[in-house]
User: Fold these one by one.
Assistant:
Number 1:
Amino acid sequence: MSPKAVRRAVVVVFVVGVAGMVGLSIADEPNGALAFGLLTAAAAVVLIAVTAVTGPRQAADPEALAERLEGRVQTLVAAGADEADVRRLVREAVALGRTRRED
C-alpha cells in the first residue's frame, strides 16, 4: 500500500472517529465515544509513523552526482554512443524527474 493510500485511509478513520465520538457522546455512550477516540488516536500514530518513514529524503551532494553522471556520459561516449544523443537523454531524464516528484 502506498503512503498516499495510507494517508487517505487515515483521513477516513479520522472523519469516522470524530463522527463516532460526537454521535456517541450525544447518545450518552461514554464507552463508545472513548473507543472511537482511541481509534482516532491510533490513526494519528499511524499517520505520524508513515510521515516519518516516507518523509522527504535528503538529496545527495549535487556536485558528487554531477561528477558521477559526467563520468557515465564519458563512458558511454567512449563506448561509441553519440555524445549529443546521450546528453539529450540526460536532459530529458532530468525533465521527467522534475515532473514526477511525489506529493
Number 2:
Amino acid sequence: MEYNNLTVRELEEKLREISAQITNIRNKIKELKRERTILIAELKELRTERREKIDEIKELRESIKSINEKRRELVSELRNLREEKKKKIEEYRELVNLARTKKDQIQAVGKELRLPLSVIRREIERLEWVQQTQILSPQEENRIIRKIQQLEELLEKALKLKKEKQEFLEIKAMLTSLRLQINDLKKKINELSDKISSITEKRNNLFQKYNELKNRIDELNNMINEKQERINQINNEIEKLIEELSKLREEYQKVQEEIENRKLAVIVEQKRKLVEEKLKKGEKRLTLEELKLLYGGIEDLKE
C-alpha cells in the first residue's frame, strides 16, 4: 500500500488503527488458544471415559456369552426333563389302563370263587383220600372225580386270581413309584424353569446395560468428533490470524518507517536551509554532516 498521499497525522492515525487491529487479533488468538486448551482437556476426559466404557462393554460381552452358554445348557436340560416326564406320564397311563384291566379280571374271577384257596385244596385232598381209601360204587366214584375236576378248575382259577392280585399290587407299586418320579420331575422342571427365568432376567438386564453403554459410546464418539472438529477449526483460525497478524506487523513497520522518514525529512529540510544560508553568507567550510545534508539522501542521514 502506498502512503505518499497521506499526511503524517493521517499516517499516525493509520498506525493507531493497525495497532488496534493487532491488539484485537492477539486477543482473538489468545481467546482461541484458551478455548482450544479447554477443548483438549475435555477431549482427553471424553476419550478416557470412552476407553473405560469400551472396556466395560467387552466385559459385558463375555458375561452375556457365559450366561447364554449356561442358559442353553439349562434349556437343554429342561427339554430332556420334560421329555422324560412325558414318557413317564405315558407309562403311567398305560399302567393305569393295565391296572383297570387287572382289576376287572380280578373282580370277574372273584365272583366265581366263593371258597378260599386253602379250603379248595383241603376239599380236593379230602375227596382224593376218600377215593383212595374207601370202596365206592362206580356212580359215587364218578361223582367224586367230577367234583375233584371242578375243584381243580376252581383251584386253577384261584391260583390265577392270586397271581392277578399279585400283579395288580406290583402295578400299583409301580404306579406309586411313577407318580413319585413324575412329581419329582415336575419339581425339578419348576426349579429349572425358575432358574432359567432368573438367568434370562439377568441376561436381559445385561443386554439393557450393554445397549446403554453402546449408546453412551456412540454419544461420546459424536462429542469427540465435534470437539476435534472444533479444535481443527480453531487451529485453522489461529493460523489465518497469525498470517494476518504478520501482515499487519509488516504494514505497521512500513507506516512507522514512513512516519519516521517524513519527520526526518522535515528536520533535514530545516537543517539544509540553515546550511544553504551559511553558504549564501560566504562561509566556505562545511562539516561532513552539513555536506550530507546538502548532497545526501535520507538513508545516508539515517546512517
Number 3:
Amino acid sequence: MAISRANIAMEIKRPGRKKKKKKLNIKKAIKKPGALRKSLGIKKGKIPLSKLNAAAKKKGKLGQRARFAKTLRKLNRRKA
C-alpha cells in the first residue's frame, strides 16, 4: 500500500483498525442448482460419492461442478 497523507491521517485517527474479512456467500456461488445432477443423469436425491469422485476428475463444467459439490460437502460437515 502506498503511503499518502490520507492513509497517515486515517491511521492517526483510528490506530489498530483492521479491515473486516468478507464472508463467502455460498447461495450466490450456486448459479444453477441441480445442473450437476442433471448432467450426471441421476434422479432427485443425493449423488453417490463414487459418481461424484469420477465426475470431479473430468474437464469442463462437469468437473468444476463436481469439485465444487465436494467442497460444499466439506463445509456442511464443519457446521455439524
Number 4:
Amino acid sequence: MFLRLSGFILSIALLVFVIFQKKIRKWGKVGLVVVALFLVLFMAYLNIFPRHPAPHPTGDMVVRTDTVFYRYESNLADMLTHGNEREIPIKVWYPDGAEENQHPLLIFSPGSFGTAESNETMYLELASRGYVVMGISHPYHSFSSKMSDGRTIRANSGFLWSVVTSEGVKNMEGNLASLREWTQVRIDDINVILDKLLDAQIDNEYESLIDRERIVLSGHSLGGAAALAVGRDRCEEIRAMVVLEAPFARDIIGIDGDQYVFTDEAYPLPILHVYSDSLITTMDEIATYEMNVRLLHSDNPMYVNKHISGVGHLGLTDMALLSPILTNMLDRGADTRKAPETLLELNRYVLEFLDEFVSASTP
C-alpha cells in the first residue's frame, strides 16, 4: 500500500514538473504531459482497485465453476428480461468429482447492487469442503448481470435512486412499501430456484448433486432480508440460514407511530447472523431491526449472532478485496482491518455454524 501511494504521489509530482517545465519544446512537452497523465491515472487505479489476493480455500477438494440460467414468467413488468419472462443468471461453485445426492447446497442472494460473486471467498471455502454454492445475479438489481444471450443488464436507475434516497423512519409507510417491493424481486428469484431444485421431474447436472435435505439460504443486506422471508415461508424445505447484516423485513406486519410492528411468531430455522460495526451498536435504534434485536438477546441456541469488529457493512463482502479504499469510503471509515482477515473470520463463523446445524446427512 505504501509503495502504491508513493508511486501515485510521485506521478503527480512528475506531471506538475512537466507542465511547468519551460525548456521542453511544445510537442515534446505535450507528449510528456500525456505520458505523465496516463501514469497518474494508472497509479490512481492501482490505489483505488489494488485487487488484494483472496484467502485460499482450506478444504481438500478442487473447486469448479459454471453458470446456469433459470427462466420464469413474472408479473413484475419492469423486471422482465425476455418477453414476459425473467431470466436469472446463477453462478455455481462445486467440488470436482461431486457425487449424486451427496452435497449440501447454499443459495446466496447479494446486497442491493451486488453480483453473483459478491462473497466468492466464502463460496470457494464451502465448495472446497463439499458444498454446492449458487450465487445469484438479480437482473436490474445487481450492478451487472450477464444473460444467456450475451446481453449485459445493468442496475435499474429507478431502483438505484430509490435505494439511495430511502427516507427510513422519516417516511415509515413509504420505506416499508419500498422494502416490500425490493425484496419481492429477490423472493421470486429464490423461490424459482428452489422450485426447480426440489422438482423431482428435473434432473440435470447440478440438481442431481444436491442433498435436498441440506439446503441453506444465505444473503447479504437486501438479499439476506429476502432469504429470511423465504426461509420462514418454506421452513420445511430449508435446513438453516446464513445471513450477513439484514433486517427481517417481511416479518413487519404493521406500523404503530414511529415503530414497525413485527410478528410474534418465532423464526423457525437456525440462523447465523453476522454483524459489522456499522450496525451492532445502533441496531436497537433502527425501526426495521426490531426482530434482529429480539434474536440477538434470545437464549435459543439455534439463533447464533456474531460481530466482526473493525469492519463496515460492505466490508462483509469481497468488495473489500477489489477496492479497500472505495469500500471504506462507502462504509464511512469503518473498515480498519485488512479485508483477508475479515473474510477469514467470516468463513470461520460460517463453517462452525454449518458444522453444527447442516453437516450431518440427516436432520
